[in-house]
Design a protein that fits this description.
The protein is mostly helical and 233 residues long. The protein contains nine helices and two strands; from the N terminus they run αααββαααααα.
Length: 233
């Protein structure tokens, strides 16, 4: 998953280097992940076409692509809506993510390269830089991006492209879940410390410590997310 720059549907005039369908897809995807298009919100082709100043054809193609990614779903009446994830979805996603990231951390301990270690350290430094620049002013989208960059690099450290691909799919759903449901920021200091423990275990090639650090980090996040969803009910 990538985090393109924040775009708003209103007033976006699309340029033409990419196919029109691809541009519309990127704009809608960003709007979903930024929370501009909210979970459960109905997507009406004519309205989207008018806002983006395109015909309905690229809108329809983009929505189909989002459906294939389970970011858009059809309701009981056949209307298309932004996916909305439940507490059960959150629990299942975190269970999958913990298992996959523990495997990534273990494989990283045996395969990580110096170039990967440098990128992992850079991801931690982004958190530290954010701590120095008024972290309370970060949006959920920005905070998630900082967290995502570390976990993407952790996946890459495994040297397992199949595992990376599986984790990218899970990351997409996790971003949707957290953007739509999390109202308050977790302490960025906590994120930094938890990331640092994972990093230290990997550079020391300590598989057991890496597994434990990943589990503790993701379990803490899981508890925060589930609590937030419950408060919104």
């Amino acid at each position: 998953m990538t985090f393109p720059p924040s775009l708003r549907l209103s007033g976006n005039c699309l340029t033409r280097p990419q196919s029109l369908h691809e541009q519309v897809y990127q704009v809608l995807r960003t709007a979903i992940f930024s929370g501009e298009l909210k979970g459960g919100q109905r997507l009406i082709e004519t309205q989207l076409a008018a806002k983006l100043q395109v015909s309905r054809t690229p809108i329809r193609e983009a929505i189909r692509q989002l459906q294939r990614e389970d970011l858009v779903v059809a309701d009981g009446n056949g209307s298309l809506r932004v996916a909305k994830l439940s507490i059960e979805d959150a629990l299942n996603l975190y269970d999958c993510r913990i298992a996959l990231e523990q495997l990534a951390a273990v494989q990283a301990c045996g395969k990580v390269k110096n170039s990967n270690i440098k990128k992992l350290e850079e991801a931690i430094q982004r958190v530290e830089k954010a701590m120095e620049q008024k972290p309370n002013e970060l949006t959920n989208f920005q905070l998630l991006d900082i967290d995502y960059q570390f976990h993407r690099q952790l996946a890459e450290c495994s040297g397992n492209p199949w595992l990376v691909n599986l984790l990218l799919q899970v990351f997409d759903k996790m971003t949707l879940l957290r953007v739509l449901n999390i109202q308050e920021h977790p302490e960025i200091q906590e994120i930094r410390n938890e990331h640092r423990r994972i990093y230290d275990a990997i550079i020391n090639r300590n598989e057991e410590a890496a597994k434990i650090a990943v589990q503790q980090h993701l379990m803490a996040t899981k508890e925060r997310v589930v609590k937030e969803i419950q408060l919104l009910k």
